[in-house]
Automatic annotation (TrEMBL):
The lineage of its organism: Bacteria, Pseudomonadati, Pseudomonadota, Gammaproteobacteria, Pseudomonadales. This is Isochorismatase family protein. Pfam families: Isochorismatase. The keyword Hydrolase applies. Coiled coil: none annotated. Keywords: Hydrolase.
Length: 183
């Protein structure tokens, strides 16, 4: 795989609230390390970095704008020259300027990392693929949480993560590991 000079790294919802205990058990305990390695590489090579911040509409959310959970984790605070997209729903394209700004900058290749795999990552990847962007989801730089399915059966974060990646791979995006991307 070739990383183009104008490939954008899109870091989704790396905010303080994502570590709230009420979200439960997660998978990929080293996902942040992998995200930070990718971020360091993107910054070193001068490629575009886009930080996505969720501003929830629900006061019960860990991303409610009027509490500390909405702030970026210290290691993921955007630097000068890096784009910030603030969203109100899981999909980073919906109701934002993301598509317009990507097209204006002639960016056609997107690398998605962040949280939650089955929510904001998956919805953003689906839209990106549908809009014709060459979309890559970096599986070991994303994570999610244990979740009950529609019928009430608890599914492990690993199973939820795997199913979400399965939903995306080959149709909306290409799923790879950070090692494959940086090789």
């Amino acid at each position: 795989m070739e990383i183009r000079a104008r490939a954008a790294l899109i870091i989704i919802d790396q905010q303080k609230g994502i570590h709230h205990p009420r979200l439960g058990r997660r998978n990929n305990p080293h996902a942040e390390e992998r995200m930070l390695a990718l971020l360091a590489y993107w910054r070193l090579t001068g490629r575009p970095v886009i930080h996505v911040q969720h501003l929830s509409r629900s006061p019960d959310s860990v991303f409610w704008p009027e509490q500390s959970g909405v702030a970026f984790q210290d290691a993921f605070v955007p630097q000068a020259g890096e784009q910030l997209i603030q969203k109100r729903v899981p999909d980073a394209f919906c109701g934002t300027t993301l598509e317009v700004s990507l097209r204006a900058a002639n960016i056609g290749q997107l690398m998605l990392v962040g949280v939650a795999t089955n929510n904001s990552v998956e919805s953003t990847a689906r839209t990106a693929g549908n809009l014709g962007f060459e979309t890559w989801v970096i599986e070991d730089a994303c994570y999610t949480f244990d979740k009950a399915d529609f019928f009430g059966q608890l599914r492990s974060a690993e199973a939820v993560h795997a199913m979400s990646l399965g939903n995306l791979h080959g149709e909306y995006a290409t799923v790879i590991s950070s090692g494959q991307l940086l090789a």
